[in-house]
């Protein structure tokens, strides 16, 4: 029997440090709120985290050992909530940062959750469906004492989907001896999923993109947009933007990018992606370098890929007037300074992409009640909550004279701190 060990993430694959950025944002909010240094220490560190080994028998019979993480950042406002990603770039510090951002996102949208995140260091494109199921079930078994509808509720993220959530729910339920629909969200409709969940993050991104364009006096029907990343978030965001009258002129994914100055035919592009698995090679548009998408002369840029793609190396070349962060942490701290100096309106991730956690919350509520809402109910509630949060962040930004990211973090940190202080410190 041959045993293979998954290689650790190379230090050369990324110069970015999302955890440092997340803690820096927290420190700024703590300072503006006038809290004691001890509150920073309390909120900067996860309440609980676990790293597990995941032995996998490959279809070939070989044994490979993968590494998985689950970080629960905060429970002050309710059970932890956060996605599970499968990516070769997963690291514990990345998961810690994402869990912290989830805490702020839930608080900002006034959802009664704390933040969590999970990840397995794996490239899912190189594994069979049967292998991915075995990975998911073993990972779930390893972390099962820490999750549950009253403890921590995973959801899909990069590299995972509703099928992954179904496997997690089934594995957890088998251990409990009864079906527990509320242990995950983002499940298939037939297993307690919610209408609108698959496109919720994209819906939220577009609601705020249109609001942000109007905020600076741009008519969305005359606006141009570029979307970085054509996965769960970017693909639907491009379609919804196009349906709203925005001319989407460029999109990219990990394999390439395409540009059409007259506007991409999104339906035709989707058909091409379904057939080929990538936007690259789409014949109704010109090919482009992925990095150039971020620097195009457009009104709106939607980074919907991974962390840190907008950084100090390219921020000065960004020409978009509005950036709406579909991804988590796509803009580094250094890039934020440059963009603020250029008066680029950046709608931060904890606000912009919160539609997913909102409808995850709706799904959890429906599962607990065993009563499901119709699509119009979900969409109306999503639009109302996103609009309310947008107005609150804009008002805080104007009152404090700070960027939207700072204003959003201040609101969230203040709410989490209030919950913590009201609960008290035990013992």
From TrEMBL:
Ligand binding (substrate): 81, 105, 360
Molecular function GO terms recorded: glutamate dehydrogenase (NAD+) activity; nucleotide binding
Annotated keywords: NAD, Nucleotide-binding, Oxidoreductase
Catalytic residues as annotated in Swiss-Prot or TrEMBL: 117 (proton donor)
SMART domains: ELFV_dehydrog (SM00839)
Ranges for domain Glutamate/phenylalanine/leucine/valine/L-tryptophan dehydrogenase C-terminal: 194-424
Binding site for NAD(+): 201
Record-linked CDD domains: NAD_bind_1_Glu_DH
Matches recorded under Pfam families: ELFV_dehydrog, ELFV_dehydrog_N
Biological-process GO terms, alphabetical: L-glutamate catabolic process
SUPFAM superfamilies named in the record: Aminoacid dehydrogenase-like, N-terminal domain (SSF53223), NAD(P)-binding Rossmann-fold domains (SSF51735)
InterPro entries, sorted: Aminoacid_DH-like_N_sf, Glu/Leu/Phe/Val/Trp_DH, Glu/Leu/Phe/Val/Trp_DH_C, Glu/Leu/Phe/Val/Trp_DH_dimer, Glu/Leu/Phe/Val_DH_AS, Glu_DH, NAD(P)-bd_dom_sf, NAD_bind_Glu_DH
Site (Important for catalysis): residue numbering on this chain: 157
Coiled coil: none
PROSITE patterns xrefs: GLFV_DEHYDROGENASE
Domain of life: Bacteria
Family classification: Belongs to the Glu/Leu/Phe/Val dehydrogenases family.
Name of the protein described by the UniProt record: Glutamate dehydrogenase
């Amino acid at each position: 029997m041959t045993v293979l060990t998954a290689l650790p993430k190379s230090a050369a694959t990324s110069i970015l440090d999302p955890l440092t950025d997340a803690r820096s944002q927290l420190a700024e909010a703590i300072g503006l709120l006038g809290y004691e240094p001890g509150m920073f220490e309390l909120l900067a560190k996860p309440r609980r985290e676990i790293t597990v080994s995941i032995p996998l028998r490959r279809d070939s019979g070989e044994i490979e050992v993968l590494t998985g993480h689950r970080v629960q950042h905060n429970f002050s406002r309710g059970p932890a909530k956060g996605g599970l990603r499968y990516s070769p770039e997963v690291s514990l510090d990345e998961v810690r940062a994402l869990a912290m951002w989830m805490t702020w996102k839930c608080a900002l949208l006034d959802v009664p959750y704390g933040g969590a995140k999970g990840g397995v260091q794996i490239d899912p494109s190189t594994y069979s469906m049967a292998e991915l199921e075995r990975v998911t079930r073993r990972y779930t078994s390893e972390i099962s004492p820490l999750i549950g509808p009253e403890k921590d509720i995973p959801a899909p993220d990069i590299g995972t989907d509703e099928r992954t959530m179904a496997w997690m729910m089934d594995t957890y339920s088998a251990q409990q001896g009864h079906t527990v629909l509320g242990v995950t969200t983002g499940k298939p409709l037939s297993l307690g999923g919610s209408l609108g969940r698959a496109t919720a993050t994209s819906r939220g991104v577009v609601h705020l993109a249109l609001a942000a364009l109007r905020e600076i006096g741009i008519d969305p029907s005359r606006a141009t947009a570029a979307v970085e990343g054509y996965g769960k978030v970017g693909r639907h965001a491009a379609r919804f933007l196009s349906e709203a009258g925005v001319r989407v002129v460029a999109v990219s994914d990990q394999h390439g990018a395409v540009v059409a100055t007259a506007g991409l035919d999104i339906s035709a592009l989707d058909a091409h992606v379904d057939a080929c698995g990538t936007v690259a090679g789409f014949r109704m548009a010109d090919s482009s370098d992925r990095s150039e998408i971020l620097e195009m002369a457009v009104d709106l840029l939607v980074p919907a890929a991974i962390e840190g793609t907008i950084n100090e190396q390219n921020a000065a070349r960004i020409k978009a007037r509005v950036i709406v962060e579909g991804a988590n942490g796509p803009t580094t701290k250094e890039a934020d300074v440059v963009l603020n100096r250029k008066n680029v309106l950046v709608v931060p991730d904890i606000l912009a992409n919160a539609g997913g956690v909102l409808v995850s919350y709706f799904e959890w509520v429906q599962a607990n009640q065993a009563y499901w809402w119709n699509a119009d109910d979900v969409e109306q509630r999503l639009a109302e909550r996103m609009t309310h949060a947008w107005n609150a962040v804009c008002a805080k930004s104007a009152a404090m004279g700070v960027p939207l990211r700072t204003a959003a973090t201040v609101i969230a940190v203040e709410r989490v701190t209030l919950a913590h202080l009201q609960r008290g410190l035990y013992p």
